[in-house]
Design brief:
Number of helices: 17
Strand order of the largest sheet: 2-1-4-5-6-7
Distance between the termini: 25 Å
CATH superfamily of one domain: P-loop containing nucleotide triphosphate hydrolases
CATH topology of one domain: Rossmann fold
Shape: elongated
Oligomer: single chain
Strand content: 15-25%
Number of strands: 15
Structural class: alpha/beta
Helix content: 55-70%
């Protein structure tokens, strides 16, 4: 229930504070006085998009703050889910800064606009005269039956199953597309993989082959050079080794004559030993090196294959080719893996669809039952509103196609006259009938849905006389279980209220401002009389106002 509303620097309102009470509250005033401004300010609290153009003083921020009594609504889980402190008397504040930015707070905790919207749907329902257009909207018609049937939990359970089913269907579509692409690439990838696999590559092979190719290409020159080295060192007269041995013998003869000569003798002896070892290794290497045209051809062919594969795949090493081979192998295996996953997901989709059908059937059954209730319970209300021969019916047609709201199509059918044919509401109802139908629907849903506050913004459009008295009576009945706030031009409705506010304009030398104030009984009588006649009201109008208030 709305307990208090504070508005500051919003449109024509400089600053206003309004205390609201339980029951039926009427708000009246001349056209253009600023009644709709109140709704605009409240809409900000419920998450409507902010616009800096509403700032009365563009250099100051706008503040809209309201206190709501939530103790009967069990909204603690919503607050906990969004990490917001809960209080039975919750304060919602929206600030609009001169630069265009806005901030929102719930119990002094900063919150998102999305949270305001979620909270707003549970605490207040604002119905304007333009909302009657919703009567022709298919989603609204389904929501109407869901409200009457109190299908909130049923719909939530169905929606969860439908979301799971939709997610699995999307996954199946993605996997199917993936498999089709993989199948398209399979033959080419298989060819590439087989080519690399048959090459039987090994890491480090390229470097070894390149070294062998260089050796084979230069085998004759290498053998000739090695032979000359052996001949020079130990194969001819005055060879290096012979000369060194002669030098060693000379050093040996005089090694005892000087300590340093002995050391040099030992070093030269070691050099001769090292040289002999080198000569032996050169001879062995010379014997091992053989030139083979067949081997040369085989090595070159193998290198040509490696170079061709590297160029084809735009890589530089055998290691990269082996990595590519592994990737191709994985892609080929993935085709089989995707096929297995598709089979699993197909089974999951079938299972999820059965769940959707089951929960959709329960939802549909509940709506069919609500449609019967709608027709039965709307009849006396329509009669109260001067449409005793009218019939309102909801036609529920189920299909094989399931959507976020189930598989039902709901069409509201209406007939205003006895013996007439039921037709879609939007084609046969007049403006005044639409207003009364919407009031009927709101009255019915108010019984089923625990909504603490409903605001009617000139829902009385197109009605007058005795019907307006009955509209006021229905609103008064609704206010026994909820707070009803009616912005109205009809004295018959205003007279039924427990609390009456008047919106009016004041103009000074510089600007015009809207204000609102509560009326006492005498002021109410005067205001209702003015609504009946003019300012100042006639004696007859005052008498009629007293009679209306006494009803």
């Amino acid at each position: 229930m709305l307990r208090h509303l504070h508005i500051e620097n919003y449109a024509l309102i400089r600053q206003s504070d309004i205390d609201f009470h339980p029951g039926f509250v009427a708000i009246t005033g001349e056209t253009g006085a600023g009644k709709s401004i109140l709704l605009g300010a409240l809409a900000l609290l419920l998450g409507q998009r902010a616009d800096s153009k509403v700032l009365s003083n563009p250099d100051k921020k706008c503040i809209v703050e309201a206190q709501f009594d939530l103790q009967q609504l069990q909204l603690q889980p919503l607050f906990e889910e969004n990490d917001v402190d809960y209080d039975d008397l919750t304060i919602i504040r929206r600030e609009l800064l001169p630069g265009g930015k806005s901030r929102a707070f719930v119990n002094d905790t900063p919150v998102s606009v999305a949270f305001l919207r979620a909270l707003g749907t549970d605490i207040i329902d604002i119905h304007s005269q333009h909302a009657t257009l919703l009567l022709a909207d298919s989603d609204f018609q389904i929501a109407l039956l869901d409200s009457l049937a109190d299908n909130k939990q049923l719909l939530a359970d169905y929606r969860q199953s439908y979301d799971d089913y939709s997610r699995l269907k999307r996954e199946l579509e993605q996997l199917t597309a993936q498999e089709q692409q993989q199948r398209k690439d399979y033959d080419y990838n298989k060819f590439l993989f087989d080519e690399l696999s048959q090459a039987n590559l090994s890491d480090g092979e390229q470097e070894t082959l390149e070294q062998e190719s260089t050796l084979l290409a230069n085998a004759e020159n290498i053998k000739q050079a090695l032979s000359q080295v052996v001949q020079c060192c130990d194969g001819e007269e005055n060879a290096v080794l012979q000369q060194l041995n002669y030098c060693l013998s000379l050093m040996h003869k005089i090694s005892d004559c000087h300590p340093e000569i002995k050391s040099l003798h030992e070093r030269m002896d070691s050099t001769i030993i090292e040289l002999r070892d080198i000569i032996s290794t050169v001879e062995s290497l010379n014997e091992d090196i053989t030139y083979s045209p067949e081997r040369q051809e085989a090595v070159d062919e193998r290198l040509d294959l490696i170079y061709r594969l590297q160029k084809k795949h735009n890589v530089d090493t055998i290691g990269q080719l082996l990595e590519l081979q592994q990737q191709l192998d994985q892609k080929l295996n993935d085709v089989d893996n995707v096929g297995q996953r598709i089979q699993q997901v197909m089974e999951a989709v079938d299972k999820a669809f059965v769940e959707v059908q089951h929960k959709g059937s329960r939802l549909s059954q509940s709506r069919h039952e609500a449609a019967i209730r709608l027709e039965q319970e709307a009849a006396p209300l329509l009669a109260d509103l001067g449409m005793g021969n009218a019939t309102l019916k909801a036609h529920v047609e189920s299909s094989e196609h399931y959507g976020p709201l189930g598989n039902d199509k709901v069409t509201l059918l209406f007939n205003a006259n006895k013996g007439g044919q039921l037709q879609p509401l939007s084609k046969v109802a007049s403006g005044g009938e639409m207003s009364r139908l919407m009031l009927t629907i709101k009255a019915l849903t108010a019984r089923a849905v625990l909504l603490p506050t409903i605001i009617f913004d000139e829902i009385d459009s197109g009605i007058s006389g005795d019907v307006s008295v009955k509209v006021g009576r229905i609103m008064q009945r609704m206010s026994q279980t909820m707070q009803v706030i009616a912005i109205t031009h009809l004295p018959q409705i205003a007279a039924r209220a427990n609390q009456h506010y008047k919106v009016y304009k004041e103009t000074d030398d510089t600007q015009t401002a809207s204000n609102i104030r509560a009326l006492n009984d005498d002021e109410r009588r005067h205001e209702i009389a003015v609504m009946l006649s003019a300012e100042p009201p006639t004696t007859a109008a005052l008498q009629t106002a007293s009679e209306l208030m006494a009803l």
